[in-house]
Amino acid sequence: MKILITLSALLLSAVHLFGETYYYAFGQKVILKPLPQTRSAADQNIHYFQTKTGTKLGVKNEIIIGCKDMEQCKPVLENYPVTSVEKRSDTLYLLTLKKGSDPFKVANSLSHEEPIFLSHPNFIKKRIAR
Protein backbone atom coordinates (compact mmCIF):
# COMPACT_ATOMS: atom_id res chain seq x y z
CA MET A 1 0.00 0.00 0.00
CA LYS A 2 2.86 2.39 0.85
CA ILE A 3 4.46 1.65 -2.51
CA LEU A 4 1.21 2.50 -4.33
CA ILE A 5 0.87 5.80 -2.48
CA THR A 6 4.51 6.68 -3.14
CA LEU A 7 4.20 5.84 -6.85
CA SER A 8 1.00 7.88 -7.13
CA ALA A 9 2.70 10.87 -5.49
CA LEU A 10 5.70 10.57 -7.83
CA LEU A 11 3.45 10.33 -10.88
CA LEU A 12 1.48 13.42 -9.86
CA SER A 13 4.73 15.31 -9.26
CA ALA A 14 6.06 14.31 -12.68
CA VAL A 15 2.86 15.43 -14.42
CA HIS A 16 3.03 18.72 -12.56
CA LEU A 17 6.70 19.27 -13.42
CA PHE A 18 6.63 18.20 -17.04
CA GLY A 19 3.02 18.97 -17.96
CA GLU A 20 3.04 22.69 -17.18
CA THR A 21 2.30 25.22 -19.86
CA TYR A 22 4.19 28.43 -19.24
CA TYR A 23 6.04 31.32 -20.80
CA TYR A 24 8.45 33.95 -19.53
CA ALA A 25 7.46 37.58 -19.07
CA PHE A 26 10.09 40.03 -17.87
CA GLY A 27 12.23 37.16 -16.62
CA GLN A 28 9.39 35.61 -14.59
CA LYS A 29 7.77 32.25 -15.30
CA VAL A 30 4.04 32.66 -15.94
CA ILE A 31 2.09 29.42 -15.53
CA LEU A 32 -1.04 28.95 -17.63
CA LYS A 33 -4.11 26.81 -17.14
CA PRO A 34 -5.71 25.44 -20.33
CA LEU A 35 -9.32 26.51 -20.91
CA PRO A 36 -11.93 24.43 -22.75
CA GLN A 37 -11.93 24.88 -26.51
CA THR A 38 -14.84 26.75 -28.08
CA ARG A 39 -16.79 25.30 -30.97
CA SER A 40 -16.58 28.41 -33.13
CA ALA A 41 -15.11 27.81 -36.58
CA ALA A 42 -13.05 30.99 -36.21
CA ASP A 43 -11.50 29.66 -32.99
CA GLN A 44 -10.55 26.18 -34.19
CA ASN A 45 -6.82 27.09 -34.48
CA ILE A 46 -6.71 29.11 -31.26
CA HIS A 47 -6.04 27.51 -27.88
CA TYR A 48 -7.10 29.49 -24.82
CA PHE A 49 -5.34 29.69 -21.47
CA GLN A 50 -5.73 31.61 -18.23
CA THR A 51 -3.03 33.04 -15.96
CA LYS A 52 -3.16 32.80 -12.18
CA THR A 53 -4.35 36.42 -12.13
CA GLY A 54 -7.31 35.52 -14.37
CA THR A 55 -6.09 37.01 -17.64
CA LYS A 56 -7.34 34.98 -20.62
CA LEU A 57 -4.96 34.52 -23.55
CA GLY A 58 -5.38 32.88 -26.93
CA VAL A 59 -2.47 31.26 -28.74
CA LYS A 60 -2.09 30.14 -32.35
CA ASN A 61 0.95 28.49 -33.88
CA GLU A 62 2.88 31.76 -33.96
CA ILE A 63 5.84 33.14 -32.01
CA ILE A 64 7.34 36.62 -31.83
CA ILE A 65 11.11 36.80 -31.59
CA GLY A 66 13.58 39.64 -31.23
CA CYS A 67 16.75 39.45 -33.28
CA LYS A 68 19.08 42.33 -34.21
CA ASP A 69 20.47 40.56 -37.28
CA MET A 70 18.25 37.96 -38.98
CA GLU A 71 21.22 36.57 -40.91
CA GLN A 72 22.67 35.46 -37.56
CA CYS A 73 19.31 34.04 -36.42
CA LYS A 74 18.53 32.02 -39.56
CA PRO A 75 20.89 29.12 -38.69
CA VAL A 76 19.28 28.87 -35.23
CA LEU A 77 15.75 28.85 -36.69
CA GLU A 78 16.65 25.99 -39.05
CA ASN A 79 16.63 23.71 -35.98
CA TYR A 80 13.00 24.55 -35.16
CA PRO A 81 9.63 23.81 -36.82
CA VAL A 82 9.35 27.24 -38.47
CA THR A 83 7.42 27.49 -41.74
CA SER A 84 7.61 31.25 -42.29
CA VAL A 85 9.29 34.39 -40.97
CA GLU A 86 7.64 37.80 -41.30
CA LYS A 87 9.49 41.00 -40.38
CA ARG A 88 7.39 43.25 -38.11
CA SER A 89 9.98 45.92 -37.20
CA ASP A 90 13.74 46.42 -37.31
CA THR A 91 14.26 43.71 -34.67
CA LEU A 92 10.92 41.87 -34.27
CA TYR A 93 9.80 38.92 -36.37
CA LEU A 94 6.63 36.83 -36.45
CA LEU A 95 7.34 33.11 -36.87
CA THR A 96 4.68 30.68 -38.02
CA LEU A 97 5.21 27.13 -36.78
CA LYS A 98 4.34 23.82 -38.38
CA LYS A 99 0.90 22.55 -37.49
CA GLY A 100 0.94 20.55 -34.26
CA SER A 101 4.01 22.33 -32.84
CA ASP A 102 3.83 23.59 -29.25
CA PRO A 103 4.42 27.36 -29.40
CA PHE A 104 5.24 27.49 -25.68
CA LYS A 105 7.97 24.86 -25.88
CA VAL A 106 9.45 26.36 -29.03
CA ALA A 107 9.36 29.92 -27.62
CA ASN A 108 10.87 28.83 -24.31
CA SER A 109 13.63 26.96 -26.11
CA LEU A 110 14.34 29.87 -28.47
CA SER A 111 14.61 32.25 -25.52
CA HIS A 112 17.85 30.46 -24.56
CA GLU A 113 19.40 30.74 -28.04
CA GLU A 114 21.92 33.37 -29.07
CA PRO A 115 21.46 35.89 -30.76
CA ILE A 116 17.70 35.86 -30.03
CA PHE A 117 16.95 38.35 -27.26
CA LEU A 118 13.17 37.88 -27.02
CA SER A 119 10.86 34.96 -27.69
CA HIS A 120 7.24 34.35 -26.70
CA PRO A 121 3.99 33.09 -28.24
CA ASN A 122 1.99 35.60 -30.24
CA PHE A 123 -0.84 36.08 -27.74
CA ILE A 124 -4.37 37.00 -28.73
CA LYS A 125 -5.86 39.07 -25.92
CA LYS A 126 -9.07 40.12 -27.63
CA ARG A 127 -10.64 39.09 -30.93
CA ILE A 128 -12.59 41.64 -32.89
CA ALA A 129 -15.01 40.60 -35.62
CA ARG A 130 -14.55 42.53 -38.86
What does this structure look like?
16% of the residues are buried. The protein contains three helices and seven strands. It is globular and about 40 Å long. Strands 1, 2, 3, 4, 5, 6 and 7 form a seven-stranded antiparallel sheet that branches. Helices cover 25% and strands 38% of the residues. It is of the alpha+beta class and 130 residues long. A hairpin with a 4-residue loop joins β3 and β4. The chain has one domain: 2-Layer Sandwich (Alpha-Beta Plaits), CATH 3.30.70.
Give the overall form: globular
Into which percentage range does the β-strand content fall? 35-45%
Q: Report the C-alpha radius of gyration, rounded.
A: 17 Å
What is the ordering of alpha helices and beta strands? HEEEEHEEHE
Tally of domains: 1
Range of helix content: 25-40%
* Text of the CATH class: Alpha Beta
Biggest β-sheet description: 7 strands, antiparallel
Helical region count?
3
What would you call the structural class?
alpha+beta
Distance N to C terminus: 59 Å
Strand count = 7
Question: Mean pLDDT, rounded to whole units?
Answer: 84
From the 3D structure, determine the CATH topology.
Alpha-Beta Plaits
Using the 3D structure, state the CATH architecture. Answer: 2-Layer Sandwich
* Unreliable parts: 1-18
Write the layout of secondary structure elements.
Layout: H1 2-18, E1 21-25, E2 28-34, E3 47-51, E4 56-67, H2 70-77, E5 82-87, E6 92-97, H3 103-110, E7 116-124
Antiparallel strand pairs: 1-2, 2-3, 3-4, 4-6, 4-7, 5-6
Question: Outline of this structure?
Answer:
Helix content is 25%, strand content 38%.
